[in-house]
Each structure stands twice: as structure tokens, then as C-alpha cells.
Amino acid sequence: MSQESQPEKTQTANFEERLQNSADQIETTLRSLLTDAPRGTEQLRPPKLLAAMQHGVLNGGKRIRPFLIVEVARMLGYDQAGVLRAASALECVHCYSLIHDDLPAMDDDDLRRGKPTVHVAFDEATAILAGDSLLTLAFDILADEATHQKAEVRAALVLGLAQNAGIGGMAGGQSLDIEAEGRDRTEAEIRQMQAMKTGALLRYACEAGAILAEASAKEQAAVTRFGTIIGLAFQLADDLLDVTATSAQLGKTAGKDLQSHKATLVSLNGVDATRETLNSLILEAEETLAPFANKADVLIATARFIANRQH
């Protein structure tokens, strides 16, 4: 092994260890939020519904979105316990979207993260309710004083998540994606759809880290721009994996985009051109965080991980 490759390998191992440690902390926080004991004015947590929620959210995954919240906040000098709560709230929204995406009326998938999807493990009605419950739980978590002592910070977190998860963000992007199946779409239309469907929550993750840290407008603009860039990068990497990886590697059904005739930049421009676009996005992401110098090392490593992941 050359001297040049050894440090790179070490850095990759250190990053993956940090990512795993963060995922473990998020898992612990989510478990504490998904116990059978009612909270606040809740009356009862139905066991079957709770089990379905746990199945949908406590089944691993890279936890990239919560990791971004944690690392952006840390880069900006904020490292309080409430960060893990905010990060877990975002993961609840992400997992709700996966549960609903997997339903027969949507992508009709039987496998998620190597396990049966929620509607397969339980039933369709319970899967719908589990997704609904995870979505509302997210706002419960963010509105709680345990997440941040300042009401204006909590309000900004709630507002940002609502706008990025709803009609003008993730849900709207999913609608556009369904409409685009089997139809020709321009590159601009595909980018818009992907910026909403996938990019919105990744952008919000970076924005939320800055909100928690009460960062300056300039700092918040920079990390939000970074989130926008890696949001598109994440989707491009996903689209490439759909045509190059196996179901075993992905932990979900491979080739679904091609089978469903989905509008992607891979289908429009081809694999090689999409890889070139992905590489240019990562360079742009690095340049965006250049003002933060070595404080941004983990976030830059995250961008590279997103582009180069194999599942």
C-alpha cells in the first residue's frame, strides 16, 4: 500500500466510526421516545401501532440526516443533549416517508434495509397509521423544551421541518415523482423534483443544525447551501446504485426506477455523465464550506461518503 493511500484509508475508517457512533446515539434516543408509556396528554399507545412504528424506525440505516444535524451544530460550536432529540425528530419524518413510499399505492416494496417493509410485517392500514404517528411525533419532539430552551429556536425548527416535509418539500416531490413515471421530463424538471423529494430533508438537516446553534445569517446560508448540494448528490448516488447495485447490497429491491420508468438523471443522461455531475457537486460542496476551514472536515467527509457509498 502506498504512503498516500494509508492516511486516506485511516480517515475513512475514522469517519465511518464517527457515523456509526452517531447512529447508535440516535437509536438510543429513538428507543427512549418510542416506549409504551404515554407522554404528556397522550392516553394510550396501542401496542400494535407502537410495534409498527418501532419496526419502521429502529431497523438500522446510515442515519445520514440526523448525523448532519449533529455535525453542523458541532461545527458551529453547539453540542447540547437537545441536538440528538432534534436529529431523532428528523429521522422520524424520514422513516415515516419510507413507510409510506413502500406501500402498494406508492413504490410497492416488500424489502427495506434488508427487512420486510412495515405493511408486509403488519398490514397496510397499520403502516399508514405508523407513518402518520411518526410524523406527528417529530413535531412533538421539536416543540418540547427538552430540545432547546428557547421557544423561538423550537418554533424555527418546527416551521422549517413543516415546510421541507410538506407540499413544497418532500411530499410535493414525491407527488411530482409519481406524475413523472413513464413520461419525458427535462433535466430542470427532474432536478426540481429531486430537490424536493430527497433534497429538502437533507437541506433541512443542515439548516436545523445552524438553527440549534443560533448561527449567524452568513453561516446559516453557507450550511444550507451545502445541504442543497449534497441533497442532489445523495439522489444522484441513489439513482446510480439503483442501476449498478444488487438488492442484497441495497437492502431493498434494485432496479425499481427502471422498472417503473421513473424520471432520473441517470435515465436522461446516462451513468457516466451522472457520475461526472456527482463529482462536480462534491467539489462544489467542499468549496461552500471552505470558510470554516478544518472545522468542516467531518461534513466534507460526509459529502464524499454520500457520493461514494455502495448501499
Automatic annotation (TrEMBL):
For the region Disordered, give the residue spans.
Answer: 1-21
Name of protein: Probable farnesyl diphosphate synthase
Q: Which SUPFAM superfamilies match?
A: Terpenoid synthases (SSF48576)
Lineage top rank: taxon? Bacteria
CDD domains recorded: Trans_IPPS_HT
Which keywords does this chain's UniProt record carry? Isoprene biosynthesis, Magnesium, Metal-binding, Transferase
Q: Name one GO biological process term.
A: terpenoid biosynthetic process
Q: Where is the signal peptide?
A: none
**Could you tell me which InterPro entries the record lists for this protein?**
Isoprenoid_synthase_dom_sf (IPR008949), Polyprenyl_synt (IPR000092), Polyprenyl_synt_CS (IPR033749), Prenyl_diphosphate_synthase (IPR053378)
- Family that this chain belongs to: Belongs to the FPP/GGPP synthase family.
Q: Which GO terms describe its cellular component?
A: cytoplasm
Q: Does the keyword field hold Magnesium? A: yes
Cofactor(s) the record lists: Mg(2+)
Provide the species name: Cohaesibacter celericrescens
Q: Which Gene3D superfamilies match?
A: Farnesyl Diphosphate Synthase
Q: Which PANTHER family match?
A: FARNESYL DIPHOSPHATE SYNTHASE
Q: Name one GO molecular function term.
A: prenyltransferase activity
